[in-house]
Amino acid sequence: MDSPLADVERFLAQTPPFDCLEPPQLRRAAAAFEAVYRRSGTEVLRIGEANDTLWLVRRGAVETHDAQGNLIGRYGEGESFGLQSLLGARPVRFRAVLIEDSLLWCMPRAAFDDLRAASRAFDDFYIRSLEQRLVGALQDSAAGRQTATLFLTPLSQLARRTPISVPRATPVAEAARVMAEHGVSSLLVGEGRELEGILTDRDLRNRVLAQGRDPSTPVAEVMTATPLTLEADSPVLSGIVAMAGRGIHHLPLVRDGAVVGMVTTRDLLSLQTHHPLYLAAQIQKQDTREGVVEVCRRVPKLFELLLASGLRAEEVPKVMSTITDAVTRRLIHLAQARLGPAPAPWAWLAFGSQAREEQSLRTDQDNGIVHADDVPAGADAWFAALAREVSDGLDACGYVYCPGGIMATTPEWRQPLSGWLRHFARWATLPDPTAVLRVSIFFDLRGIHGDAGLVARIREAMAECAGGRGRAVFLSALAHQAAHYDVPLGFFRQFVLQRQGEHRDTLEIKAAGLLPLTDLVRVRALQGGVTVASTRERIAALVARGAMDRAEGDRLDGAYRLLCGLRVRLHADLARRGEAPHNHLDVRRIGHAERAALRDAFLVIREAQDALKQDFP
Question: Which position among 220, 279, 306, 499 has the lowest Cβ density within 10 Å, counted as fewest Cβ atoms?
Fold first, then answer.
C-alpha cells in the first residue's frame, strides 16, 4: 500500500512548477507540506498580516479581494495564492477567502526558499506568474497611476535611519560588532563629509571570513571603495535601476555632497518582485549564455509592462538601457570565467543609444574595448576572444550586430588607451562634415564594465577634442551635420509627410526629430565641456553651467520628452500587433493636442538649428 507521502508526490509531479523538480527535490517538497481542511467562508489571509506560507489548493477554491472588495483572483486545484506577500516579504495586500470547503497544503517559507534556490525553473515559474498577474492588475488606470506615483517617490522617503560610519582604520572585528549592535547590514567608511567606501555583511563573508583574514584587519582593506551614490531626492525608479542593473544591495543617498541616508534591496524588494525591472536581477543569476538568452525573451513584455504601469514613456528607454547594461555585464562575467583573468586593466565601452540610455525595442550593438598600454605579448588575443564571446552573446539576446562594424570585435575599436587617444586627436582635425558624421557616435560614450580610470581618460580626450586647436573646424563640422537635418514642417506649420512607399503619409520620428535634437545637444555639450552622454543630462548640465538659457533648455527637454514618448508608444503599439518596430508615425493616430505639441517640438528643433548656423557659419 502506498504511503500518504507517495500520493502527495504523485500530485506534485503533475502540478507546475513542482513537475520540474528532480526526484530528491520533489520528495523534499512533499515532506514539507502540511495538509489543513477549512470550511467555505474561512478567511485564510487577512490584509496587513504577515504571510510566511506557500498556500496550494489541493481541493476546493479560493478568492482574493482588495481592501475595497474588488475581486483580484480566483484559484482552484493545483494553484498557489498569497505569493505577493510571500515573495516580497511584505504584509498581505489581498484578503483570501475560501468559497468552497477546501483542502489546502501549506509549505513554510524556509522550505519554499530552499526549493527556489535548488531549482531555477521552479524559481522562474513564480516570477513569471507574478509578471503575468501584474499585466492584468495594471490595466486599471488608477492602479497604474498609483504605481507611477510610487516610482517617482523620493528615495529619501525609504531611508529608515541615518547611516552608521566608522574610520578607515577600524578593525573588521569592531566593525562587525557595530553592525550587530545597530542591527544594520552595512557601514559607511570615512570621516566627516568624505565617503571613502562601504562595508557590507557580504564583504565580511567574502573578504574576511572566506579568506581567513585577521579580525584586526582595517576595514579600508576589505571595503568597497568609492561606492555608487544617488541624490536623496532621486526617484525610487532611479534606485531600482541602479541597484538591479549593477547587482548591488546597498545605496548611500547624498545631499549637498554629504551622505544623509541609505536604501537597501530589502527596501526595494517588494517593488522589484512586483515589477519587471526584476529582470535585471534575474539576469545576474544566470550561469550560462543560454540562460541569459532565455531571460531576454521576456524583454518585449517588460516594454509593455513599463507603459502599462503608468511610467512616463520618455523614462522607458532608460530602463531598457539598464537591461542592456545588465545583459552586457553578465555576458562579460561568463566570458571571463571561461577565458581566465584579464592580462591588463581594461573597460568595456558603449556608444550611441546605449551610452545615452535612450534604447527602445530592436536595437543593434555599438561597443568597444579600451585596455592599458602596458600589456604582455598575446594580450590582444584574449581581448579579441572576449569581444567575440560578448558580441555573439548580445546578438543571441536580440542586440544584433552593428551593420557598420562598430563593435569590440573590430580591431580599430579594440585599442589600448593610447590608441583611443590617437583616435580622438585625429578626429579633432577631420576636415568636413561627412568625415565627422562617421565618428560622431563615439562622442556618446559610457563605460559599462571595468576600469573607470581608463574611461575617464577617454572622456578627457573627448573634451580636449572640442577644446584644442582644431576646435573651430571640428565643432563646425559637427554643427553643420546637426543643423542641416530636414525638419518636417512646411508652410503654415503643416507636417511634411513621406509621399510614397510602404510608409506613405507618415513621419520618420527618429530621423526627423530625435536625431537632429540629440546631435545639436551633443554639439552644445562639447562646446560647453559637458562629457555626460544622456541627452537630458547634457541639457541639465548646460543649464546648470550657464552655457544654455534655462528657457531654451526647458524647450529642448520638452521636445525630447515628447518625441521619445511618441516613439516608445509607437513601438509598444507595433509590438502588441505583432509587427516589427519601426519609427514611422502616423500623425492621424495621435490626438489633436499631441499633433500641436509635435509641431511645436519641430519648431524648437528648427530654432536650435538656426542658432547653430549663426554660431558656426
Answer: 499
